[in-house]
Amino acid sequence: MKRRNFLVALALSSSLLVSGIAGCGSGNGESTTADGAKTLVMATSADYPPYEFFETQRGEGKPVGFDVDIATYITEKLGYELEIQDMDFNGIIPALQAGRADFAMAGMTPTPEREENVDFSSIYYEAKNTIVAKAGSGFKTYEDLAGKTVGVQLGSIQEQEAQEKAKEIGNITLEPRNKISELIQEMKAGRIEAAIVEDTVAKGYIANNPDLEFTTLDGGTEESGSAIAFPKDSELREEFDTVLKEMKEDGTLESLIKKWFEDYYAEQAGAGE
Predict the structure, then answer these.
(1) In whole angstroms, what is the distance from residue 14 CA to residue 106 CA?
(2) Which of 29-43, 48-62, 76-90 has the highest mean pLDDT?
């Protein structure tokens, strides 16, 4: 969530289709191209680098990132076209339930609550939560946030965890926003004092905002892995899981992890020098 043109991302409405294929299809979200290939609609919230984000230089106005590369690989492997629909994170599960999308990738963690409404693939990446704050703040634990105003993304696992911790500790004021980029802006403007953000995402923002720092939280949620979400009983889940398994075994997934969680951050750090 960091070094690309976030103004572009914020200017786009949640209903904007960002693939070159027009129309979302009906029913389960599928549509068909002129050559007869089925198009799958992927719901995402493209404000979550390096998972998905807008970067004009690399994406030419379309989302790029770790999740986008995985989705592109899987759909091509299975013979589908891919269409990406950007929306607020808390609208993703409703979109799946309403049949406006065939699957969703947004660095989403399976939780018991979410599993009541959608099905998930196997985990494809593990991550941890962090406290992001202005450099020198020194926040290391949730206890350090007592008496502070803390930002969280609506509908995220970080919001859920922060709500639980706020009840335990008390005197923590939570300020939810739709986009991570909004949390960063609010923090830099002094309207919130910290934000709870996934570590891989925090690294990108810190690389582009040297006035910020982050600290990894210990003992956070155990449900920290990212998975692909599907409408309940979708046949796609098994198809996608088969390809995910192959990607893990043949090194494809590891190469994408290196691309987006090592090379990408090294590139950002170099750009900031």
Answers:
(1) 14
(2) 76-90
